[in-house]
């Protein structure tokens, strides 16, 4: 992730495994002029992307140029040229104007590109603004290795699109190829792109030469900068240092490494062990009753395994089974809630109260993948975690073997909102909780309309932050020490990050500009036919392969491929389209399934990676809201946690859960940041499970579930 930050913000930045930059605006203003050539609007859609005549700028020295969407930006050493000269060039379809650095900040990609291109011009003296530009949409090449192979060479590619993308590109020498062509007339320098050239050169270079996995390593696919330094493209450090030495007085790039303390977030096995140690202390000497309401072979086997494991791992724990819930701690094996509602039966899970602590497991989770120990069985760890929460609520007291005393903040009250349905009607409630130094929990339950009473000072201050009764559903948690200073955490869901080694592939899933090899598409289609034999002789599938065979280029863009599939009646709404989509997902293919069948899931899960990457939090101001005429910071925090659910779930196999936490509040301080860390970073939260939420929220939810049956129905 890259952000344009004021110098004052630089010290507080705590990103890891990221690149960001800082601009020195006044120095840029004093030494450079910046101009924008803006494309005139045209009713003729075919003229929207006419190539800019860069050759008209060839007489201008000491400059760099880049283009983005409908504009071309030019940065030039002050005094070299002026607006009158540029207007006199009379470039058709473009209006030129002088702009300030603040205007350019609205086009972050172009800002980065211009200075990358200035840097490129410095290290490559003959790279001039002629019939080509040194960068297209922010792409800059830098030689890697000696490049002494006469037919294959490698360069480091820096691209900017919603973030800085850095990877090694391979080039090969070709003759009379229809691909985009590059001249490479000096072994130590990068190639220059050729635009609309009719030159029948005997040899030139195109992207896509001989490569290996090491050559194709990308920045995002690496776990830490330690790996990056040891990788073949560790030359990035040299480039950044050299760039900052040359142009750092205008713009500085910074690399942020993950500290040892922050790396613990990803040491999940270590975190599980810490939790298990606490759980063993917590349950030692207790009794647990297991009730199997399904009583079928699968559930019986599951109960046998879980009883055996718990009794083996936890000293003096007494785990037995019976045919009904008993006072104390229970594990309930039931059908899915839809089964009971659909068959007009009472769901036994809903019958528990504070005197009967129940953790429900439905039949779709009756699987223990490994039996060697609890630490390798996330479903068992989740059972213990859930029971510890509910048992604490039942006693209105947290034992410090569960959550360390130093991580429980006694200063704040925490508010969450809940809805209780009875028949066709429902009531909304607010639950407030507070913890004291002895671990006692004080809960308060009131109707939502009473909480938002017109006379309430707290409600008025929440309204200033945009939180009223009608939009309380957007709130995950309100916390405050004084009613005049409330903070609001907005509930915006979870994102799942794939495993580190596959993330660079996954990031390509939704990018229609990516160009896989045509041969690979054909090969994957044939593999699909072999696996899904019902489509072996499908006419539409044969038509797709035939069109690909007739395609006259080595690669095809994903957008073109999707259009081709649609043309052959293979869409996501059809059975074959859904099957092909699922096949590609299982294959972990670097090109996207074309269908809406799974497209929405991918969009929600993976597009946020452009903004989150792998950092733990960003303590800084991102946006502002207005309260009582004053600008109020909206603080963004990112933590490795996930959302709540009423049912036990297995661990995420594809990667680590991450949530984006947005807080609206009046204050931003070290104390506030520490509070959030305590809420999200206690040991039991870090077990990589789907039921993990800020622990005050978790406690409030479970409290409401345990008392809602006793609410008076009005």
TrEMBL record:
Name this polypeptide is given: Uncharacterized protein
Domain of life assignment: Bacteria
